Amino acid sequence: MGCRCEKEDNISNFRFVNHHHKPESTNGKCLNQMIHNKLSYLQKRQTSGLLREYTQRRQADDARGDQSALNSNFDQLRQKAEWEATSHMKMKQAQVRDKFHTLVAEESYALERRRKKLADLLTYEAEQYQKELDESQETSEMRQERMLARARELKAKREEERKKFAQEQLDRRWRDESDELRHLASQDLAERVRIERLGQLKQREEKLQREQEEQRYYDDLWEKDRQVKMNREKQETERRKKSAESTLSILSHQIQERRDLTESQMQELQDEGLRVRTKELDDRQRKYAAKVEMDRMSSQKKAEKEMESALQIEMDREFVRQMTLKERHAKEADQKAREQRTHDGIKYRQYLEEEQRKKNVDDTELNMTLQRSANEIWQKREEVRRKEEDFRNRLTTEVANERNRQMSAKRDHKIVEKQEALAERERIEADRQRWEREEREKQEKKRQERLAVQQAQLEQMEGRKQTKYQEQYSEQNRADQERDLKAQREQRIQQEIEKGAHYKNYNRKKLNMNERVL
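^ Trichohyalin-plectin-homology domain-containing protein, sequence as received from the core. Prediction below:
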């Protein structure tokens, strides 16, 4: 349209130059200046509209970039928190597993040691039993020879004991008659008794001191382990709390800044999409706070489980200590019973020898008495051995059954705990999936809303552009019409001027002719 007007202007100017040989008039210059100013104004308005649209698009792109950076930051924080929680859980599991393997190895070593002692004891008793059986299997001649040898041995022993007793009596009589020897003997006896008493007291004190030191060592070890665990848990709790607080403060600061920016943009543009984004950020903040609270509850539950595990370990340790103490008491009781049996056997043999010396029977009666005594002793010994073996087997069976029952209960408890943990993990995973599904649905809905808003904005911008184009087109048409009218008016003025000039020339010629005539 501008090209056509310029062409018409050139044509009119050419026509004016050819016919009249005169420059443009002042009115034409003003008209061209007005048209040029109008076109510059239209171009500036169009350029300002494009700049405003570009600025709006640039702000929208910046907002989307900030939102993407914020989402990426949130994802990094979430991944870091999950990694820290997973690493801490794996470290705790490894420590508990190592401690469990150590305790199992110690218990296995102690069990193998007890089994070895029981096997050695059974082997020794079997050898003694076999030896006695081998000794008991003999013929009548061997038995007679053995009994004769035994009788001669006893006779020689009695004679020796009689001589020894007589000598001791003589020595005793001589010592009793000597005051100095009696005094020295009493001092020596008192000194030996005192030394023996001191030795017993010292052994008892050393034993008590060793037991106390061992008890203190295990108590200190348990206390140090408990303090280390408590400090570690406290530090971990404080670190997580500080991390959560710092994260929440940073998030709150970012949300506040985002909210301020959003409010300023809302005040400037009155855009509904920014308010939707603000609501989305608020929802995300609330969900993040809920997630932090859930992590805190998980950490607290984990700490409670660790304390329960430590308590269970301490109970197992106390059970092992009680079983060791019970086994020690049983060994002491067995030792005392064995010493008592030995003492009773010695007294019984002394009694038999005394009776044998008093009765002074013949060899047959001696053989019968010795055989009967040997049979009775063997029967009693066999009965005692059988009772000890039954008691030992029963005690071993009870200990093994009790330990198996405890291990089975512990395994069942661990299975139940694992099932509960698995169910809890599945529930949390289901909640997380549901939350993610809801988030995706909300995001999709918000995206559809944003697309609708953007589509409406684009339609509005397209309508505005069409309106601007129509206005520009109408203004251009009006300018063309005005230019045509002005050209027509100038043409009529030029025609009038030409008519006036022609009439003036005609009058001048007529006047000249009249002058010539005159």
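Helices lie at 2-20, 26-136, 140-177, 179-269, 272-359, 363-517.
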